[in-house]
Fold mRNA export factor GLE1.
Amino acid sequence: MPSEGRCWETLQALRNSDKGRLCYHRDWLLRGEDVLEECMSLPKLSSYSGWVVDHVLPHTQENPPPSETSPSSRSTSALDQPSFVTKSFIRNSAFSPASPKTSNGTKEKHESEHAESMVLQSSRGIKVEGCIRMYELVHRMKGTEGLRQWQEEQERKVWALSEMASEQLKRFDERKELKQHKEFQDLREVMEKSSREALGHQEKLKAEHRHRAKILNLKLREAEQQRLKQAEQERVRKEEGQVRLQSLYALQEEVLQLNQQLDASEQHKDLLKIDLAAFQTRGNQLCSLISGIIRATSESGCPTPESQAEAERALQEMRDLLTNLGQEISRAYEEKKRQDEEEAQVKLQHSQVQQGSEAHKESPAPSQGPGGKQNEDLQVKVQDSTMQWYQQLQDASAQCVLAFEGLTSSKDSQIKKIKMDLQKAATIPVSQISTIAGSKLREIFDKIHSLLSGKPVQSGGRSVSITLNPQGLDFVQYKLAEKFVKQGEEEVASHHEAAFPIAVVASGIWELHPRVGDLILAHLHKKCPYSVPFYPAFKEGMALEDYQRMLGYEVKDSKVEQQDNFLKRMSGMIRLYAAIIQLQWPYGNRQAIHPHGLNHGWRWLAQILNMEPLSDVTATLLFDFLEVCGNALMKQYQVQFWKMILLIKEDYFPRIEAITSSGQMGSFIRLKQFLEKCLQRKEIPVPKGFLTPSFWRS
């Protein structure tokens, strides 16, 4: 529309006007009253006014004043100066901050016009202001030029430093490259040196290998020669072994024949004053010995010269035994013949006595024992059945020793080490048994049972098993049984309460491994023959020390141990035996029968009461046995047991007292007081240290 076109033209004209070209600050209100104060304040001189007055005005005064100059010059200067002043003023007014801010008010216009008129009227002030502006311009130009020069100088310095850094970097790279080159050279020299040394070492190893190969070939040839030599020796040994085996069979046959002759001498029993049972027992031992030698040699393959020599010694002993028996029989017949002759002479003398003689000898009255009872003779030796049982146990022990003879006599260090490990594994757990808690006792039992069952057990930080050697089981069983008896001899003798934990473990092992129980009895009977009961008889020609050992005494350097120590050891072993027969392992089969129960204790008590008492020994053993086992026997046999106790008091006490000297009455008095107290209370007390159910729960 035409009106719209005129509007745009008007706006364009306003934009091109002086006011339209002015710059307006839209945030002048944010500056506060400072803007108005600048507009309303009086004009102020610049900070450079003093310098202009001192330096510029003196030069201007040298020029003539305007009144003295010609009109032309004044007009010229007037023409020149207004132009400068006008331009300066216009430039100043154009950039004055007060002009755009006061353009809208009439008051501000008036003041601005008044100030302009004042400036125009004062040519000197305009001149001063112009000089000030010129000075500021010159000063800014100098500052700009100085800044430009400083920047150029800094750029030159930066360029110089850059060049220096570049050169230093080049030198650094050169040094680094040189260092790498030196390191590479050193590494190559080291590698070359190592390769030379390796080649030298390789040559040395090759030389050593050739030398060792040469030595090995020599050893192989020597080993082959040794093998051939050993094979030849083995063949010769087997041939000699077969000859020895035939010789052993011949010796066994002869020994059996001689033993039959010993048995045949039973018909002369009435004539002999000696005990034929001792000859027969020894004969049976010699037969068993030779049988054991043959059995051991058949297992090992061939007999050794030592076995043959031992069999020959046994045969010679059998011959000597038969010879001695023959001599005894001959002496007995001669003695009988002499007695018959003497009896004939006595009868002849009696027949010559006058018929009227009334004097004659009266027969002596029978001897009376204490209490008016007849002193009937008791047995001195053990019953035949008991003696056979005792001999069987000893033979079994001897055979067990022969079974592991190869393990004990070997010189091989490895076999010796196995033997020591097995012995420690068997004996150390038994040594640890004491009055400890039931749980610990069960651990010991399980360890012993595992060892005997062939399972590996820990001993001394190493794993040990009887499978390490074919003879390991026999060795462990023998050493275990020996250790149990040793504990009774030492530990129980010193601490009576220890008999029960040791006995319950021994009973449990006996139940699961019967051979160990037989070996325990064999060791017990050998060290304490009174546990059979068996009183060894002194044989003619026997050394006194050997007889004392048979009785159970320890003889060292021809010195026999003291009686107190002997009784203490016998007491410990009898207490252990009395505890074994009444205890059964609580964690085993409850329905199983005790392998050696109270019936054997009753048999032992009956047999020892049927034998003549020994001074100091019988009273001690009876007291220890009844104190440990009396309560169990009382509960088992009841009335019969009390009859046995009365028999001991009424009949056996006088016999013990009759043979006991005044200095040995201590054991007898102790036994007598114990039984009298039991009869008074009608009860045998439970032994001290007996294992109660609470023991197994601990």
About this structure: Confidence is low (pLDDT under 50) at residues 64-107, 352-376. The first strand starts at residue 457 and ends at 459.
